[in-house]
Amino acid sequence: MNEADAVQTTNGEPVWATLPPKTRELLRGKLAGLWGAPTDEVAFDSWALDKKQALLLLLERLCAKDLWNLVKRVKNVYGEGGVGIEFEAWPKIKFTLSQRRDFTRRFANHKDMSGGFYEQDRGTAVLHFLYQEGEPRRWYVHFDLYSPVHSAHSALQHLRYEYLGNLTPDWRTIAKYLNS
Question: What's the rounded Cα separation, in Å, for the pair 169 and 114?
Fold first, then answer.
């Protein structure tokens, strides 16, 4: 289930009906209600290309890390000013991420968040989870182009481009780095 598996319409955008059955099944029940859409299909088909591609990239990566099952419902999707989602999570997510060796809390928090987790086994196109305490707790996951925790080189790249340069990669950039 990767981006290339989605059958494209004539304008190059994936639509729900042309997504592979496995992809539709993984998304089932997680998109309905988003922006008032009555079904998963209506929600997905109403989005711009950047949101569709962002969600498909995140779905693929979270499935590869066996983490998609922690997403209960998607609440927001973004793909141009960064590639990520806000989501309602199942209660075990914080414990699960804290127990995994491939994630760390080091440098993973933002000043306006309560905590976070960085994927640490990749230097580029890395998953970054953030959460904000409240009832319910608000969860976000996005891709950072470079990792601040993987190596000194990737940390310097992250500092230069994302922290100081305010770079927020779009879905095309993330797709390129995921496939390299």
Answer: 24
